[in-house]
Amino acid sequence: MKWFLFFSLLIALALVVLIQVSHGLSLQEKGCSTSSSRRRALLHQIIQTTTITAAAAATITTATATTTLPFVRPRVAHAAAAVTSSSAASGTEFATSAGRKGCTTRSDPSKTTVTCLGELLQPTTTTTANDDSSNPTVNYRRLSSIAATENGVSTSAVKNPSRYSPPWSYLTETSDAKQAWKSLIQAVQSLSGGNDQVQIVQVTDTYLHAIAPTQQPPGMVPSSTLNLLTSLQQPSQEEATPSSSRNERLQQLAVQPGLDDLEFLLRPEDNLVLYRSASRTAIFVYPLTQPVSDGNTNFQRLEKIRQILGWSLLGDPPSGSKRF
Predict the structure, then answer these.
(1) What's the pTM value of the predicted model, to 2 decimals?
(2) Sign of the C-alpha dihedral computed for residues 44, 45, 48 and 50 taken in this order
(3) Cα within 13 Å of Cα(189), Cβ side
């Protein structure tokens, strides 16, 4: 593009010079006496035209080389067609993965698919002088928020109203934190069948992590992932060690796309439970830089669990996402 503009201006410059010279020759052929001042003026005009045209050519060439055209920028935001890259490994953050961690981006001419696996709560271990160093205390601090480039809902998304939901209070059922936590585990397990297919991956005294297939947009879950989820619901009777086999399948699902991660965090000192439900994979349709909506399915699944428990919200009910 820049060379085309440059050569076009050079051609225009040559035409200007030819017109000026031919004009001077025509005057001489007609017997018109051209004074030295007239010749100097003509020469000055040619030089001035040449200088201006060359400067314009240099300016346009430089601007074209250093500036990306506006209608090309969405392509850059969508990480270029048919390219796979890991922003976690390369340190590159695309617009479609802004605010997320451990992301892999894949694009084609029609859409961009972003899968992120680095947003789950990571435990921290602490020991004191009176503690046995071989048995450190495991602490879970704060659940991740929900970025504008992902679908989900979280009690930590206080800066993003469409993805925020207030904590749950279990005092409507019991004041015993252990009993409340046991009830929550049972409620999550009750959604293991049907369309929910929720599977618990990890449980501690204060933290629960479960997974479920992404329901919206449709077609997000690969067949291999669905097969693993189905096998967890119907374990083979021939397996000698079903518990170890289950753990292996859960480890495989830990890195699979097309799943929603559900996290719950017990805060017994406040008589409440924090939670987060988010889709690992988001779909972006060119040229949009916000994902196709999950239809609030993450929020609806959490609401189903809360209604089973009969717990209350510590705040106004969330409005949910209004995106398509």
Answers:
(1) 0.68
(2) negative
(3) 8
